[in-house]
Amino acid sequence: MFKPTTREPLWIGLALVTLMAATRGQHLAALDYPLPDASLALFFLAGFYLRPAWAFAALCAEALVIDLVAVTWGGVSGFCLSPAYVLLAPAYGVMWAAGRWYAGRYRFAWSTLGALAASLLGAAAVAELLASGGFYLFSGRFAEPSLLELGARLLSYFPTSLGALLLYVGLAALVHTAFRLAGIGASREALSAR
User: Which stretches of the chain drop beneath a pLDDT of 70?
Assistant: First the structure.
């Protein structure tokens, strides 16, 4: 049986940091077709794979630095930087907590896919309400916010957000499965037992 090493969480953490840098709001990705934002997915994956709480804080700090650099020096509009920006932390916290919750139920078996789907859908809905809903209601960018308009905006933005989340978590699940089947790396059970 493979013995887990302390390097695996490091490599996973570096991959997540790189994914955020490559996808966050197209700030740093100089592509004609920018990649969808992976922020929600990477917080879920960090909650699943990384045990220390400082990893959550580090990813939040990275997101803030990327956004500030993009607005300050990158020529990106600062429209989204508003009092509602602070609601991103609880939105990401919900995704992190969902990843932690699923990590406690995960087994390398088809039977845990229901728990994965429930954790992703539930957390994504709450995170969308906090991030997009919070922006609409508390940013000061909208003259007369209404619950009807809030609902319409959530219905408009949530499918895209959910699609990006499912894309990245699905790709991570494929990589995870390939590594497990090849006998490379420690199992999630071994990592969480530390």
Answer: 1-7, 25-34, 74-79, 185-194
Q: Does residue 102 contact residue 119 with C-beta atoms inside 8 Å?
A: yes
Q: Is residue 141 part of a domain?
A: yes
DSSP secondary structure letter of residue 24: G
Residue 144 included in any domain: yes
pLDDT digits (tens, 9 = 90+) for 157-178: 899 999 999 999 999 999 998 9
Contact of 29 with 37, CB cutoff 8 Å: no
H or E segment to which residue 93 belongs: helix 88-105
pLDDT digits (tens, 9 = 90+) for 61-85: 999 998 888 778 766 666 677 777 8
Give the domain extent around 188: 7-192
Q: Please give the structure tokens belonging to residue 7.
A: 């390097």
Q: Cβ neighbours of residue 96 under 8 Å, at least 6 residues apart?
A: 43, 44, 46, 47, 56
Q: Measured between alpha carbons, how far is 186 from 56 in angstroms, rounded to an integer?
A: 22
List Cβ neighbours of 16 (8 Å cut-off, separation of 6 or more): 42, 45, 46, 50, 59
13: tokens are 């953490």
Domain count along the chain: 1
Determine, yes or no, domain membership for 1: no
**How far is 125 from 193, CA to CA, in rounded Å?**
30
